[in-house]
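Readers of this paper often ask what the protein records in our data store actually look like. Such a record has a labelled line for the sequence and another for the backbone structure tokens. The tokens are whole numbers drawn from a learned vocabulary of local backbone shapes. We quote a single record here, exactly as it is kept in our systems:
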Amino acid sequence: MKVKELENKVALVTGASRGIGRAISLTFAKAGAQLILVGRDLDALNETSKLICELKLGPTPLVCQMDVLDISSIANAVKLALDSFGQIDILVNNSGITGRSAPLWELEESQWDEAIDTNLKGPFLLSKAVIPSMISRKSGSIIFIGSITGKRPLVNRSVYAASKLGLVGMMRTLALELAREGVRVNLISPGFVAGPRLDGVIAQVASDQGVTLEEMKATWLEMVPTGKFVTPEDIAQGVLFFASSRSGATTGEDLNISGGLVMYS
């Protein structure tokens, strides 16, 4: 029998309740990983776990409700993983929020803080909690989910861009710090990912500019060289690459998956 790519690997995936996080979880399960699914929405996390079991993709996941900004919540999730499996081989920092779409001068300080805290401080706190166990085993892969918005400016998206470009700097520095510890650190920069979150952002921009949702969606599609939005499954395949031995010599990389929308790092 062919050994699966993530056989005997333990992966903790944040934001596993829907969208990209759910797609990553399903892809990892199919690749043989033992999963710890974490996020704030326990019902949605259980739905992801149920899908994995119903489709017979892999081992039954552990589900743990966790807030990326609550240190005790993070500690409980990491302890559950280590007590249950003895190791965390893969950490996917996927949780994040879109934040408010508005010109920078119209943002409230609280809105700025919420996006920066969730999208940048949250991954810092969770990575900090997981890294010591990876160093002790001289093995691990950490993957951050960024955004092309940090590289290609979009009107009214300043705080989101700042939070996601901040992840790139943290990822590259962490990759250097862990390079001799056997731990690889990489990042995926998704383009326009089809789904409810993108629809919500486009709807807000359409409203701000006084056009219909359909007109604005067509405008955004026109920006993508391939003429189509990427899917959560497209992103999941990139994450699988960074999680697996296929990228064993790769660290500190920022991979665009954007249909050609961004062609530079």
Observations:
- DSSP finds eight helices and seven strands in the chain.
- Residues 10-192+232-250 form a domain with the Rossmann fold fold (CATH 3.40.50.720).
